[in-house]
Write a structure and sequence with these properties.
Length: 246
Amino acid sequence: MNKLIVYLAFALSLFGLGTTTVFALQSTHINNNLQVNEDFVLGKFDYKTHKSFTKVNSKFTSKPIYLQIKVYDAFLKMDKAAKKDGINLFIISCTRNFKEQKAIWERKWRKYDNLEETKRARHILEYSSMPSTSRHHWGTDLDLNHLTNSYFETGKGKVVYDWLTKNASTFGFYQVYTDKDNGRTGYNLEKWHWSYLPLAKDYLEFYNLNINYNDIRGFKGDHLAKNMKMIEEYVNGIARKAQIFN
Ligand SMILES: [Zn+2]
C-alpha cells in the first residue's frame, strides 16, 4: 500500500498536481487504518463515548480516567510484569480533551496575568500544554506515579523509574520528554510521562501532515501559537528515540 502511494504521488506530481495532493493521499491512507481525523488529534472529541476508549480500573487511579483500549491492554501487561518485580504503577492522569486542556491553560493564563503574553505562555508551557498541541488528547500518553522529577531520583521513585527505563519499551511505552541536553526542544524533562508509540507515532505523523496554525484556536493566547512555533518545537519536541520509533 505504501509503495502504491509513492507511485501515485510520483505520477500525480508529474501531472503538476503538487504536494497538497500527495499529503491528502497519505492522510487518507493513515485515516483508513487508524480512524483518525483532524478533530481527534486536536482533542476535539468525547473520549467517554469514543468506541476506541475504555475506563481505567479504579485500582490504578484516584479519579475516573480513560485510555485507548489498545493502550490500556499494553499498560495492563506492563503492570503485570512490573508487579512481579515489586513495582506498583499508578496513573495520575492520561486522556484529556481540548475542553479540559483549555480549562487548565486558561486557569494558568489568568493566574499569571502580571506577565507579558509570550512570557506568560512560556511559563505555562514549562509543565502544561497549549490546547490542541497535547499528546494527552490522543489517549496514548500516561502520567505515572508522581508529577515531580525529584521523586524519581531517589528511593522508591528511582526504583520505579529505573524499571520503566529498562522495561517500558518492551510494552510500547517511551519517555518522550527526556532531558534537553541533546538539543530537544519544547516541554521540560518529565520523568513521569510515558507515551504508547505504536499508536502515537502515527498520530504525530497525521498531525504533521494535516494540522496548521489555523487549527490551533479557541482559547486565550491562541494567537501566540505560530510565533512560539508550537508545532515545530513542542508537538515535535520529543526524544530522539521516539522520533525514530518504527
Ligand atoms: Zn503528561
